[in-house]
Automatic annotation (TrEMBL):
It comes from the Bacteria. This is Sugar ABC transporter substrate-binding protein. Residues 76-325 form the Periplasmic binding protein domain. Belongs to the bacterial solute-binding protein 2 family. Residues 1-27 form the signal peptide. Pfam families: Peripla_BP_4.
Amino acid sequence: MKQWKPAASALLAFSLLLAGCSSEQDAVSKPPATQNKQEKPSQPANAAAGSETSKEIPDAVKKPLKIAAIVQLSIGTFSSQYAQGLKEQVNEFGGDVQIYNADNDLSKMASYVENAVSQKVDGILLDHGRADALAPSVKKAVEAGIPVVAFDSDLNIPGVTVIDQDDYSLAWNSLRTLAQDLNGKGEIVYVWVGGFTPMERRNVIYEAFKKRYPNIKEVARFGNASQNTALDTQSQMEALLQKYPNKGDIDAVFAPWDEFAKGAARAIKQAGRDEIKVYGIDLSDEDLQLIQEKNSPWTATAATDPADVAKLQVRFLYQKVAGEETPQIYSVQPHLVQKSALPEQKVSMNDIGKYVEGWGKSDAAISAWMETLSKEQKK
C-alpha cells in the first residue's frame, strides 16, 4: 500500500468531476504545510510513519502500555471486527486496552477522553467523533503528554495522527460502479445519516455524483443511526417498496454504511424485487455472507479491512509513545469488492485477497523493534 497516492488520484478525479467538491477534499485530505514537513508523498509508508531501523525495543514501550480506546458508536460486525483488531494488536505488544462506547453521545465521548487524561493512560485511541465536541478534551491529552491517534475523525490538532479510509474514494468507487451498471440512467434510493465525519465526506461525493449523472434520479432518501440500524433500515425499505411496487420504480440503492446495506438488501430480497441492486460501503464477515447469498441484491461494496485499520492505528500509537515521528493524517487505500468477483463457495475476510487485487494487510507504521517486542511477549 502506498501512502497518499490513492487519495491523490481520487482528488484529481474528483476535481475534474466537480471543482467545488475538489476544494473540500483538499481541505480535509491535505495536512497544513507548516505542520507536516516530514510527510512527503514520495516517501515510502514506513519512512513517512517515522519507522526506525533498530530492532532494540525503546524504553518507553518496554512496559505494558495502558490504552483507552473511545468509540462514538459500536454497531454491527464492522465495529466488532475493528474492536477485535485493536485488542489483538495491543495484546501482541503486551499492552492493555479498555474500550469505551459512547453510544453516539459526543458529550459522553468527550467525558471519556477527560477521564482517560485523569487516569494518566499511556495512549488514547479514538474511533469517529467530531472536532467541535472533542477538540478541547483531546488538546488536554496532548498537553498532558498523552499520545492520541484518531480514526475517521475531523480533528486537526498538531501532534494528533488521524487515519481514515479515504471516504471520498470509497463513495466514488461504489457510485461509479452503480452508474456504470445503470448505464447512466435510473431511479435510486439513498440511505444516509449525518453527524458522522465519514458519512459527511461520503455525502460530498454523492452530491457531486448527482451532478455528474443527471439522468440518475433520487426518488427517496432515509436513514438513521441506532442500536438496531440494520433492522430499522429493513423496515423503512419494506415500506418504501410498498410505495414503489412496480418494476422500474427503483433500480438501485446506494447505502454508504454496511448496516444500511444489510437492512436494504434483506428487505429487497424478501420482497422478491431482484431487479433492485444495492451498492454499499464497508465490509465484514457477516456482510460477505449476505453478499454471497443466492439472489442477493447486494452487488458491490467499497471497503477496507476494519481489523487491519485498527491494527494500523495501534502501531501509530506505539510509534508515538516510542518518540518516533508519525504523519498528521494517513489514508488507507480502499478496494471495490464485487459479488461477481467472488467464488460460489463461502469466503471470509481472510480470503478476500485471493479475489480482489491489492487487498491485504497494511505494511505502514511498522518499526523494526515491533517484531522484537512481539517475540518478547511470546516467551
